[in-house]
Specification:
two-stranded antiparallel sheet; mainly alpha; 3-stranded antiparallel β-sheet
Length: about 240
């Protein structure tokens, strides 16, 4: 089944009953083939996270009393990424500017930022990768898939979404639903996993894929598709070697 990250290995090895369902997804992801990413593609994909790491600055960024980015930082992100064009809600505060909140929270989960009390700081690896887009891209890929402790089903859902994107699936969330069903998961007492549940379980991974331009379309409308750069990022995240 090719090279695997620990979480993918764990998923496969502990659920042999799901092998018939998982094997085609893993095969389509082509994890044995090395991934080659150039500086331009890496810079385009990792730019949102590189921008945020740069914005935090070498001395860190103080959060508000409620633990959010200050309004000036939210405004800076809105300008940098032209968020007014695609976000209908307020861009005045991070707690209501959900794309900015997702960027900051996933940067923390990816290990690019650290929070020390009320101050947001760059991680050592992220600071070292500034100015090197391929290095930053590798850090983003290395931060996936996310683990969730006892909420194992969320980790499995994220792996399945990455497999679907890596394999350029024509319906990534359908594959997530199929995979979770084969793994025997049910959610909140429901007898079966629905697309809506899959979307909720994958939200953190989907946020990273969205910010990196790895997917296009709408998950809610069922039109989500991989982009070429998304295929590369997802394959690297799942364990394919990066040339």
């Amino acid at each position: 089944m090719g090279t695997r990250t620990p979480l993918l290995t764990e998923l496969i090895d502990t659920h042999p009953e799901a092998a018939a369902t998982l094997e085609p997804l893993v095969a389509a992801a082509r994890l044995d083939d090395p991934v080659s990413v150039g500086p331009e593609d890496a810079a385009r994909s990792a730019h949102p996270y590189a921008w945020l790491v740069e914005h935090v600055g070498p001395d860190g960024l103080r959060l508000t009393e409620s633990g959010y980015l200050p309004p000036s930082s939210v405004a800076a992100a809105a300008r940098e990424f032209d968020l007014a064009r695609r976000w209908r809600g307020s861009l005045q505060r991070e707690d209501v500017a959900l794309p900015v909140l997702a960027l900051r929270e996933t940067a923390l989960r990816l290990g690019l930022l650290r929070r020390r009390g009320s101050v947001l700081r760059r991680s050592g690896p992220a600071a070292a990768a500034l100015g090197d887009p391929v290095a930053m891209w590798r850090l983003v890929a290395a931060g996936l898939p996310f683990r969730y402790g006892r909420r194992v089903h969320r980790g499995h859902a994220g792996v399945l979404l990455l497999l679907a994107v890596a394999g350029d699936s024509d319906s990534p969330y359908r594959d997530v639903v199929t995979g979770l069903t084969a793994l025997g998961w049910s959610v909140r007492g429901h007898p079966s996993v629905t697309t809506g549940m899959a979307v909720d379980l994958c939200v953190d991974t989907a946020d990273v894929l969205t910010w990196t331009g790895s997917v296009r379309g709408s998950d809610l409308l069922g039109t989500l598709r991989s982009t070429p750069q998304g295929v590369l990022l997802a394959r690297a995240a799942l364990g394919a070697s990066v040339a």
